[in-house]
Amino acid sequence: MTIEVRPLGADAWHQAFTMMELSFGETWPQDAADVERARFEPDRSIGAFVGDTLAGHAAIYSFTMTVPGPRSLDVAGVSLVGVLPTHRRRGVLTALMRHQLHDLHESGREPVAVLTASEPAIYGRYGYGCATQWVYAEVNRAKRAMRPVPGSDEVTVRYADPEKSLDVCAGVRDAIVPTRPGYVRHNEPWRRGEIADPESERGGASALRCVLAERDGEVTGFAYYRSKANWEPGGPNGTTIVQRVHATDTASYAALWRFLTDQDLMSKTTHRRLSLDDPLLSWLRDPRAAMVTVRDGMWARLVDVRRALSERRYTTPLDVVLEVRDDLCPWNAGRWHLAGDGSGASCGRVDREPDLVLDVADLGAAYFGRPVLAALGAAGLVEERTPGSLAATSRAFTSEVLPLLDTPF
Ligand SMILES: CC(C)(COP(=O)(O)OP(=O)(O)OC[C@H]1O[C@@H](n2cnc3c(N)ncnc32)[C@H](O)[C@@H]1OP(=O)(O)O)[C@@H](O)C(=O)NCCC(=O)NCCS
Questions:
Q1: Is 118 annotated among the ligand-binding residues?
Q2: Proportion of the chain above pLDDT 90, given as a percent
């Protein structure tokens, strides 16, 4: 079977849309598709053709994301990936992935690609590693008691119209983006997408609510949430479903969570994309008040090892030779001398014996600061040739706050 991968051109959205419906086995409601369309970048969409048939599709969103430093890095957000059920397991996805990575390298655009996986078993073979995790937390209202947070009583919470408060919420969001690796700077279509609130995606819950946290008349935070009522014979058993909570200071963040976890008629509050080091989990007096489930979040792929490793900063001083295995992107394979600290980094080819030998996917897993290298070494997946280099490299790659992708795509 001959597969030709090429840009989709003018009609890209319509073709991508049809492909998504068929490959995901869904009918995409118009209101949700409209939100997606506003973010779609037609010139970054590629199709895999078998004869005249569009057999597969992949797209890229142009993101700017926080990496350890903190620094802002342009990353390619790979999305809308699908292959026609009639053409599966014949290499169509592989052709798309290869084309996309080679094209990114040749164009010199983003040195890192990221994605979220429908099924996590798919992307490791293409050099993606699990770079962030998502914590699904369900807080039991009856056990919600929190430790006191200084200053939180001075914060008031009030309702606001999501549309009218878009700019003020965007200001809070922009202020917090550098505070955690993996946070994406939202441009206009992504800001609007946050409050688009398509009815088809509410799953029986209320319309989106927006509350602002204020101190001395200044907005210091906001939250977007929905409520889902549930009238049971034993009493009301509703859920507060939190979509996003941000604040520029700890007290305001605490005040927002206190509000969100204490709603009459709602016996629990859920959030799908928290970090394991979120302050909420430290404030709860009863750690079991929040039942948490941890799963893979963002997957990262170093498209260009040299540029990627020199763009981020390192928690402790590092001087190491890495031997990288990368069959799909041979320009990354081989030995790299990486030297860096909190203020700068350089990475270049070297002809010296390596201290560590590892797959490019494992570098991707560690890139945003997740503390995984030592664990991968303990698991026998990263080979330490120079004693002590694994612990030193793992420490230097690990950021002080856990990385988190909190913008699903
Ligand atoms: C996932 C999907 C894109 C794979 O496309 P495909 O063209 O069949 O993939 P390929 O033929 O190129 O497969 C490449 C390899 O991945 C494996 N693979 C493909 N889909 C897989 C899956 N869902 N789970 C585990 N492995 C998978 C194949 O077995 C093959 O392995 P091999 O290299 O060891 O032989 C396609 O099945 C699909 O459209 N699924 C539904 C939509 C979806 O989940 N999209 C991904 C969004 S993140």
A1: yes
A2: 99
